[in-house]
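Worked problem 6 (solution included).
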Amino acid sequence: MAKYLVIVESPAKAKTVNRYLGQEYLVKASLGHIRDLPKKRLGVDVKHDFKPEYYIIPERKKVVAELQDFARQAESVFLAADPDREGEAICWHLFSVLQDFNKNIYRVLFHEITKSAVEEAFDNFGNLDQDKIKAQQARRILDRLVGYLISPLLWEKIGRGLSAGRVQSIALRLICEREKEIKSFVPEEYWSITAHLKASNPPSFKANLVKIDGKKVKIKEEKKAAEVVSELKKLPFVLEEVEVKEKKKSPSPPYITSTLQQDCFRFFRFPIKKTMSIAQRLYEGLEIGDQGLVGLITYMRTDSVRISNEALNEARKHIEENYPKEYLPRKPRVYKNKKRVQDAHEAIRPTSFDLSPQKIKSYLKKEEYNLYTTIWNRFIASQMNSALVEETEFEIKASKYQFKAKGEVIKFDGFLILYPKLRKEEKILPKAEQGEKLKQIDLESKQNFTQAPPRYTEGSLVKELEAKGIGRPSTYAPIISTLQNRVYVIKEKGKFIPTDLGIFVTEYLIKNFPDLMEFEFTARFEGNLDSISEGKQGWLGYLKSYFSLLDRDLKQAMEIKGVKGMGIPVEEVCPECGRQLVIKEGRYGRFRACSGYPDCKFRESMFKKEVKPLEEMCPKCGSRMVVRQGKYGTFVACSNYPKCKYIKKEKKDTGIPCALNCGGMIVRRKTRKGKIFYGCSNFPKCKFAIWDEPISQPCPQCGREFVLRKNAIKGESYLYCSNAECSYKETLEPEKIWDRREKDEPI
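Solution. The predicted structure is:
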């Protein structure tokens, strides 16, 4: 038995850390949080200082029992979860369940998983940070109070299945308010006029009309634009002024969590969740040839742009050895953090400058290589010289009309040497003298319209939340997922559109919970948590002040009279009694119903009209077949229903052999309640059955014939081996899941 027990969150991190510690250390994974508040009740005693009721998560009971057994035999226990509030909370929960089994429990912190960082952490171990724990406790308790006290109110007043959240509802408000701006926006017509001109030296260039009689140009009609063009054709164009100036373009600071999320969405269209998942793998360690598992980046949850002196010196050394001397600044670049920043961690950067992206490309998946290259380039660029740009501006006169043309030439690329694809195309203006007459090649007028503000994408929503100081970047991914899972928003061409439900819930919350739905109030919450984690503010006092506002608003909202479960009002009226229709959530999905219920019992499924015609014809009556939505999902049936009730039977045989090798095949079945499962065709002789959809793909680790997919609908899905003794598990991204589904189940 090893002398010391080390506990981290994940098996991947455990493997990497284990490489740097001797045989005296046993490194085990807790698999994340081991305790949580109960799922089906509040779990917080608001009358007794908000005492939380924690329980061991059922799936973690076996892990906890093993850790307790190891702790009993070890001389000391080291808790090495991630170096943030969440990691501190995981360590605190571990401490709580292990303290009766070992009295020597310590906290170790490392911000990158490298040999030197791990060794330094174990040389400087300490105790748990109680202030950080209190801050995280305050967040967890308040999130629970908001979610579990407001959500039942939404169920009662509007409909079941709804939820509210401290940051979730604010993010939804941003999306709804942007949609309101778009709908109320009235486009205005305007015309732009461009002159194509030529000086005595090439090349020719274009100039835009900017002023008429010294006033900013405003041409709103085609007729006026035509008159201007007609007049300009008769006028001489003279280069009245030439202005040449040099300006510097400086590199951006190294990545923090939010800027990494934004750029990965911009460059690769990675959802926030995918970016964080890949970054987690790079941080915890990947197999790099003979070097084994190597942590490639520092901790990826940070809002600080600070970098260590050691990393700074290594970056400058790398630039000096790999680029001409003019690319290295005389002094290191130092970046300042914004206000209200947790400066516990460095910025996101590579851990080793010997492992360039190109050098280790063969060991990385494409998405890992893209993310690592992005982090590498941003960090190296942050310590390079600025780019030097020569900007030329022509001011051109044609009587009372004033035109402008701008050109830009890169004199020295500086840090832009790392971004060849992102460099703007140079706009070159000719060498020309002041007072020179220009030849008119062409005149063009173009109709334009003012544009409404764009809908939010994942990247721009993250940017807006961060700008307003709302939430933490590490929480943005689950918030965005929740908004979509609750059908508060839908994503169309990568942009968020609020549903009727999302808009109605937002308006209800703003009306009844004005304080909690304010942007500034929510932003101050993060500042208060920072004060608690720094020991400057008491957590209990803050909990009481926050809860008093929540409790007051709850009581007022409960007193408002209204129909229980009134639903979401829509503009349509009931075809039977003429009263307003509402949308409600039922056992089998949404439906329209009369607001006069129970006097009027009209109701209509919202899936009723959702049919998709197919090329296939009905074998009974010859009508076209369609895909319909039923209680238990989609099915193919005759479009001539109810005259023809033909329903095409599903292909139940998956073509995959039974995992128990009994000679049967896996077939698709339904329970009495319509829930789909997969079982053996030899039932009842063979009772093999699974909920998860089988995939006809051999396990790359043990060669077992099929791999199962779990939780495909929720977006958190895996391929894992059917062999209980095989540990193979592969995370699937949502788009990858549906690609496979389309291949497996063509319509």
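Discussion: Residues 130-157 form the longest helix (28 residues).
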